[in-house]
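Hey,
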Amino acid sequence: MQLRTRITLVVALVVLAYALGDLALQRFIVYPRFVELEARDAQTDVLRVERALDAEVATLDSRCAEWASWDEANAFVAQTKTGSSFAEHSLSAGSLRASRIDLLYLVDREGRVRFGEIRNPTSGERVRLPELDLEQLSPGHPYLPIDRASGTRGIAQTTLGPLFLASRELEGPQGGAVILGRLLSNELVKELRERTEVDFTWSDLSAPSELEPTLLAEVTASAEPVLRVRDESTLEGYASVDDLRGRPTLLVRATLPRAISAGGREALRYALISTIAAGLLLLFVLLALLRKTVVAPLGVLTRHAVEIGKSDDYGRAIALERGDEIGVLSREFESMMRKLERSRAELVDTARAAGMSEIATGILHNVGNALNSVGVSTEVIDAKLRSSRQQKLDKLAELVRAQGERFGEFVAHDPRGRHVAPFLLEVADGLRDEHAQLAEEVRTLASGVEHIRALVAAQQDFARKSELRESVELESLVDMAWGIVGRATSATLPELVREIEPLGRVPVQRHKLVQVLVNLLKNACESVAAAGRAPGRVTVVLRSHSGRLELEVRDDGLGISREHLPQLFRHGFTTKSDGHGFGLHSCANAATEMGGSIRVHSDGPGRGASFTLELPFAAREAA
């Protein structure tokens, strides 16, 4: 993923996370505050309706107190002359309507009704009320004042509907009581709605209700208004109003608009949109800034590094004249490339020297193996020459020179002369045998010297990237390598078992193959000797398999532990006390140079080992 894309994704995710966090904050912290405020405002509205109802009762009670203090009212109850004019002016239908009184009762001390009238607040017609359709009220009638100081006031549930009622004792010496009432009519409800600015309705709690029983029980038991959400735009508030005896009698239901929560949602929506807009603006500004100050310069640096990687031109310059961290990075990058160029040159020289050292070590190791055979042949020739019958022939030559011209007579008549001919025959036979043995050793010596020369020549050919293949009989190469190993060791050789598939003449790099065989056979013999086998066995298997030539050297020697197997071909690794770790490493290199590979297998210590060389196998030639 490109840096620009990554930065864009990171910044976009940050903006998105901030927007989601802000949304969660608004949704779960801010918006509930609006809902709480709306609930408090709704409760205030419902309470305002309750206070308006109480205010109606209070107004009626205040008017009732005025009536109780009027002398005319007291005189009317006492049935004096002044009371007659009071009835004409104050107790008429028009006067009561003007005073907004729907019910007026004046009773004396004994409870006899001196005046009683109830009128429909809408039509003005007289109506009857069973609770007061009496000529005399009993002393315990609920509408009569309880005490002189406060009287009785409240709401009474009647057959005509809820009735605001107030009663006071008359202040005159004759006693009695005045009862005023106002029915909760539709006009009064409309007036209260306008006054409180709350849309409400009422219902009788004693009648069957459409409310759920649990909600109804909660409303009647709670001193505070109860709120319910009807939908996203409307709340419903419920409150109960007590009657004269303190029992719930009216259920007030207020329908309240959810203006506050709607405004809160609108504000939160605007805040979210503004947050997203600000985040997008920040995103675009940051991306533009990052592109100009970071991404573009880093892109230049990246392209510069890619070009250097393709061309290996560490001296290529980059022009970023900046005073910030990018400029410092570009200058340090150029300085690092210059140092890397110098280090690379030094590393190439070091690697060349190390490679030459490793090659020389491998060559010397293989040459050393060949030199062991050459040394043995040289010693054999030297011993043969020191013990040669040539000395006896020299003695015979001195005898012949000493006899001079008498040599014939010496041979014919001297007893010693009769031994000359047999002696010459014996010397001739011995010299013939010595000549044959020396010729064989000379051939062996020449073969070893030729192998050494070939090793050096092969290295020179490898340095020139050339490759020479010869068509040879592989069995003869095995014999040659076994002969070199036999002359290079003083120990008794194990039994050699050949399992060689007849492949005819095969084109191979002869001397490299001999080099590998010598190393593998020598290691096998040493492993058998170290294991104390008597005499032990080394098996050479030669076969073709799936278009590959496989040459396996197997022994019944010490074997190899599992942890050593992966390291055997590593340069410098050896398990021998006098080893150097060059032989198998050079075998692996030679196998690679011949286009093949070498592998090892062992079942563990004491169970022998096998090394298998795989080479490309071309069509064989006729022998």
